[in-house]
Amino acid sequence: MKLEYNHDLTDNGKFKNIEIKNLIRLWDFGCNESKLFQELINSFVLDASKFEVVLEAQEFITSINCKLTLIKSDKNNGIERISEDQFICNLNLDSYKHMINLIEPFINHDSSGYQWLDELANPSEIDFLFSPGGTW
């Protein structure tokens, strides 16, 4: 599973029909990695003493060009950039529980689909894509 930040997908306005300008994506994975990621999020939700998870620190995730820390928050603001390659994802427990459900279809069979993992968050400038093939 790869973790990657994609900036300015419009190529400075060249591609006008693209609604998503920036995204962080988890991609290049199969059923096993999907299950590991779902288990990671589930244990994060269930552990009241745990307030953050560093994705690139997980053995099954390879960072291409960014670092992403998931944080339990009442703000539910989604992904924010805090430095050139460092990002945080502030979601509430309901959004993380929803994320667990969004991952489910990728566990039982290889899927060519995708999910926006932050779809319950307040709108932000950076979206969070979960896609085996990296596309949407």
Question: Could you explain how this protein is built, in words?
Answer:
By secondary structure, this protein is of the alpha/beta class. The chain has a single domain (2-131), classed as Gyrase A, domain 2, CATH 3.30.1360. It has 3 helices and 9 strands; from the N terminus they run ββαβββββααββ. The longest helix is centred in the N-terminal third of the chain and has 16 residues, at 31-46.
Q: Quick summary of this structure?
A:
The protein contains three helices and nine strands; from the N terminus they run ββαβββββααββ.
Number of beta strands: 9
For the record, what CATH class applies?
Answer: Alpha Beta
The named CATH superfamily:
Sufu, C-terminal domain
The percent range for strand residues is 25-35%
CATH architecture: 2-Layer Sandwich
Arithmetic mean of pLDDT: 91
Helix content: 10-25%
Weakly predicted, low-confidence segments: none
Protein structure class = alpha/beta
Sketch the major β-sheet. Answer: 5 strands, mixed
Q: Measure the end-to-end span.
A: 16 Å
Strand/helix succession: EEHEEEEEHHEE
Shape assignment: globular
Number of domains: 1
Query: In order across it, which strands form the biggest sheet?
Result: 4-1-2-9-8
Give me the CATH fold name: Gyrase A, domain 2
